[in-house]
Write a structure and sequence with these properties.
By secondary structure, the chain is of the alpha/beta class. 28% of the residues lie in helices and 23% in strands.
C-alpha cells in the first residue's frame, strides 16, 4: 500500500488549484458562476431552507453574491461567517444586506458584529461550503486553515460544496479531521453524497 503524506499532498493541490483559478478568464468565470448559481438555486434543499449559511466569495472562488441576494429577496435568513480569531474558529452572523459587510480577517468580507446578530442555533439550515477542489465523495481541499472543518463538526444541517466541474476529482487525500459535504454543486452536475 502506498502511503501518502496528506498534509504535503494537500499543500501541493492547494497551490495548483489557486493558480488555475487565478488564471481563469473573467468571461469564462462569469459563465461558470451563472450556471453553478442556477443549479444551486434549483436545489429543493435551497428552496426549502429557512436559514442559509454562506460565505462571501473572494475573486478566485465561485461567486456567491447572487445566491445571497436571491436568499434575501426570498425572505430567507442569511448567515455569513466571521473569523473569531486566527486559530480556526468562526462564528456566523445574520445579515440583512451586503452593506453590513466589511473587510476582516484575511481581507475577506465579513459581517460587522456591531450591526449583526450572532447565530446561536446551528442545528439546521443549508450551509454552502467553499473549496479549491472537491472530490465526488464530498471531501475538499480548502485554503488550509481548518475553519470550515471545525464549524461542520457543530453544524446539524445540510451541507453543499460548490466548485467548478473541472476542479472536481474522483478522490482527494483526507485526514481524520476533514469533513465531507452532503451535496456537490458544479455548473455541469449535482452529486449527492448522503
Amino acid at each position: 500500500m502506498l502511503l501518502v503524506n496528506v498534509r504535503e499532498e494537500k499543500r501541493r493541490l492547494r497551490a495548483r488549484y489557486k493558480k488555475l483559478r487565478a488564471q481563469c478568464p473573467a468571461d469564462v468565470k462569469q459563465r461558470l458562476d451563472k450556471a453553478l448559481t442556477a443549479n444551486l438555486l434549483g436545489l429543493a434543499e435551497y428552496r426549502d431552507c429557512e436559514t442559509l449559511f454562506i460565505f462571501v466569495s473572494s475573486p478566485i472562488e465561485c461567486e456567491t453574491r447572487g445566491i445571497i441576494l436571491d436568499a434575501l429577496e426570498n425572505g430567507k435568513k442569511v448567515a455569513v461567517p466571521r473569523c473569531a480569531d486566527r486559530s480556526g474558529r468562526m462564528d456566523f452572523y445574520y445579515i440583512r444586506s451586503l452593506d453590513e459587510l466589511s473587510h476582516g480577517t484575511f481581507s475577506l468580507l465579513e459581517p460587522d458584529p456591531e450591526k449583526c446578530e450572532r447565530v446561536a442555533d446551528l442545528s439546521n439550515g443549508l450551509c454552502v461550503v467553499p473549496g479549491l477542489c472537491f472530490d465526488l465523495e464530498g471531501y475538499r481541499v480548502g485554503f488550509g486553515k481548518g475553519y470550515y472543518d471545525r464549524f461542520l463538526d457543530e453544524f446539524g444541517g445540510v451541507t453543499v460544496g460548490i466548485c467548478y466541474a473541472k476542479y472536481t476529482l474522483k478522490q482527494l487525500p483526507r485526514g481524520a479531521h476533514d469533513r465531507r459535504t452532503d451535496i456537490i454543486v458544479t455548473e455541469k452536475f449535482i452529486n449527492r453524497n448522503c
